[in-house]
Give the backbone structure.
Amino acid sequence: MTLISTAGLARTFLTKNGPVEAVRSIDLTVREGEILGFLGPNGAGKTTTLRMLTTLLAPTGGAATVAGCDLATDAAGVRRACGYVAQSGGVDPQISVREELVTQGRLYRLTRAQAAERAGELARDLDLTGLLDRTCGALSGGQRRRLDIAMALTHRPKVLFLDEPTTGLDPGSRADLWDLVRRLRDEHGTTVFLTTHYLDEADALSDRLVVVDHGVVVAEGTPSALKLRHGGSLDASLQDTFLAITGRGAAPAEQPPVAV
Amino acid sequence: MLLHDTALVYGRYLRQSLRSRFALLFGVLMPLLYLLFFGPLLTDLPLGTAGSSWQVLVPGLLLQLGLFGASFAGFSIIIEKGHGVVERMRVTPVSRLALLLGRVLRDATVFVFQAVLLVLAAVLMGLRAPLAGILIGFAFVALLTASLAALSYALAMRMDTPQSFGPAVNALTMPSMLLSGLMLPMTLGPAWLDVLSHLMPFRYLVDAVRDAYVGHYATPHVLYGALVAVGLTALSVTVGTRVFRTA
């Protein structure tokens, strides 16, 4: 079953230097229970797309539905269905972990008792129980990420959007986060839509990849299909495949310039 | 839902204010200094108004407190934007109006509290005014801070750095203070200045509170002041909510 579908989704920003087409036209579908890796070079339009799909930014063109709710006409429905973890996270460093989790529950209209109970559940699930009375600013990078995800899972969303969730984490915390993402999908059937710059991460986690560049989808498929199609063989690294698709980055060794 | 959400947001930010007790008191410092070192200069001057010089100065200082304090309320939201807190809340179903109202009501609470401290200090310095007038003064402080804080948040939502926000607010507050006659009644000045100051909405608020402080409640000043204060608040909250919805 299709959980997210977009058609010609676009966003143009008006700036002092004229219009900037951050997202030109995105067509994609995400199936229920899928882990989708959303890849692309810096500035390709990944975060803008995520912000549109989570109702933070109104599209200037195209249409999309998330969990059966139309983005343009049923923002409330979309908000009920999705959880979002921004690159920067979203907690106040001066507030305690418990207070943030409980307030988040209350923002999702839980009663005081329900919110406290849900905070305890999330803390157990994401290994935060011992940290509940610390301030968010006192957490390590990996603990902060788990808290950000706990916040986004408060209302048991059907789809979780993660924007570069492992940037800045140490290898151990990254591996833990991968396990967490897989567990969410396996145990709760949560659909995960994640952006990343780490191609090993995309390779290890994603069922399917969507590569965007210059605001449009330039390739789409399972990691192996993309390797075969764009990298030349199943043994190609996703790195080479990615470079072949976007035509950027470490170009093949160039001829040294000839002196004239 | 709006009430529930507003109460929730209000509670969050009130707890934030209570955590920094120092900042809570620090806000009264500037008007308090005016009270101590500027107030006594006026005691024997002919100000052309009813009542003592304190009944002229204290209403001005109350609104100064609101003007300078609430205009900078937006700083906190620039910091929160950096932490991603604003976007995290906007992804939840919480009412957009509540995201603004909760914050604005917190600011009104904090500034009315500071206004009470300022009036208590003024009473020690020699202010004598009817209780009803003093309470009316607090109501004007609440409306002024609510509207200015809403505008400040709206402006801050559109700006990315505190470096650009500070000068922008300063450029607006300084002329507002000078032209609204917060320190001395504008009627003392030349006609052109008096006329110019009538273009400044805060002028009407100051005049209204000054009337209230001398026990004159049913005057055109009080009426115009109330109309301007309510109108300004309605306008600012509308603008602010729009920004929270779309930013």
Summary: The longest helix of chain A spans residues 171-188.
